[in-house]
Amino acid sequence: MRSSHVPDIVVGRLPLYLRALNHMQAEGNEITSSQELGERLGISSAQIRKDLSQFGEFGKQGTGYNIGYLSDQLRSILKVDRVWDVVLVGVGDLGRALANYAGFLDRGFRIYSIFDSDPKKIGKRAGDFTIQDAAELRKAIQADDIQVAMLAVPSDQAQAAADALVEAGIRAILCYAPTSITTPASVRVEYIDPVLHLQHMTYHVV
Amino acid sequence: MRSSHVPDIVVGRLPLYLRALNHMQAEGNEITSSQELGERLGISSAQIRKDLSQFGEFGKQGTGYNIGYLSDQLRSILKVDRVWDVVLVGVGDLGRALANYAGFLDRGFRIYSIFDSDPKKIGKRAGDFTIQDAAELRKAIQADDIQVAMLAVPSDQAQAAADALVEAGIRAILCYAPTSITTPASVRVEYIDPVLHLQHMTYHVV
Predict the structure, then answer these.
(1) What SS3 class is residue B31?
(2) Does pTM surpass 0.90?
(3) pLDDT digit string, tens, across residues B167-176
(4) Which residues in chain A have Cβ-Cβ distances shorter than 8 Å to B172?
(5) Is residue B4 predicted with pLDDT exceeding 70?
(6) Å from B144 to nearest chain A CA?
(7) What's the ipTM?
(8) Which residues pair with B154 in a beta bridge?
(9) Buried b (16+ CB within 10 A) or exposed e, A13-36
């Protein structure tokens, strides 16, 4: 496995490939090609073949990829052939939408518990969850050995919440607050900020 | 301006720079450096200097960048020195969160109107908006010459909704549905799918 040397930008495309393969499978297909994948994703077939070749041999020239097999391999590479428990911190509108989102489980993730620091919210329900006191975050994360968190608090609370998550042992944070947070190098952070995408697109709109 | 030849991945980093500069300005700073920006963003200072140099000369060796000036320049390059009206299609939990999100306006965007096809929702309120009938989408978009849309409908409705948006003249779509949509090359699409980010991170979690 040469995966330790794979550029992170290549790793970042694997979830896109996996998602497209899942859709193909749901449509009843068994075989695909780098051309077909590329057309779905707007990525060149050469790029797809090159990306996948960094992780092994998944198809043969001329016969294409077996969708089920390639999906399984990608799930294994991305470590989502298991289900990761996730804590959600911050139950505003967005946190509530995430708590109700049905698309996590069949792709490797399950929201396990949700937290907020607002006394008016603690104890109330959101989706299938009871909102817990953010002061209990550390204890809960450590008791259940949770490694992944989603952060949906306001920007001015994001760094403090991230610090608490890191201290509790969280290894990966998906941050919805429109700010940058600082963590030790051993903790991965990714951001979801719709405005970054909107601004990227308006650059191109004449 | 050499910007027509700038790789898209570079363009995609400009909104990150702009966001960091805005935070620095809010903290009362007037001058920054590629080193300081890089530390905030986890990007090398050389990369930042190289990215910015594709668009012009924004600072001098040794004196750093004037934050206000560089912000203005980036806003102009990204075309967010104006406010873009945005239509939102799909008012589930997520659409509701977007309708209530306060972080668009000061970064170049304003939700102008919101649509859903569910008769039970049409006419109801979400945030400051009255939910309109998605059947009226085309008329509304053309009447107000809107070019940007956010799509927060279920996956199985995403392509049809995107087709309607494209037909109405939309030029940029931010898609929250966990699927890939197809549009003419002249229409930009970006996706927000939390699972892609989560899977990218779990690859790295040992």
Answers:
(1) strand
(2) no
(3) 999 999 999 9
(4) 198, 201-202, 204-205
(5) no
(6) 17
(7) 0.94
(8) none
(9) bbbbbbbbbbbbeeeeeeebbbeb
